[in-house]
Amino acid sequence: MLPPSPPWSPPLFGSSRFTIIGPTNATSVLVLSAFLGLGPGVDKIQSMGILLFLVGLFLILGAFLRVATLLQYVSRTVIIAYITAAALLIIANQIHNVLGYSLGDAGAFGEVCWQTLTRLLQTDWASLLVGFLTVLIWLFVSGT
Description:
Blueprint: H1 9-13, H2 25-36, H3 44-64, H4 76-99, H5 109-118, H6 125-142
Helix pairs in contact: 4-5
């Protein structure tokens, strides 16, 4: 496995001062999709090293080829739709934790939503209360 890059290296290889360096929600969704696509019986811990190597390789290749400059040709609507879809996928994959049950190896978005809806009667009310209180505390602290 490769060591993490030092914090001074992204400005040397980046093509824009607006490029996000580090994990984002969209990156997390792509990693989640990669792991869900592996299927049962695959050692996901061993696969993590290969995935990190490939992600790093593509990031370095993209930086050298200045791929980030192509983003200016993608419409704002497409970018907003992509980020919104990423947010919905994250919510769908986390809501069962708030409801207090496990979905097992649910894969695609529709399958996760269907399994969540069919198991609503298995809701653990203590977990739901903790989730609800967490949201209330966050709203109070953030001032909204």
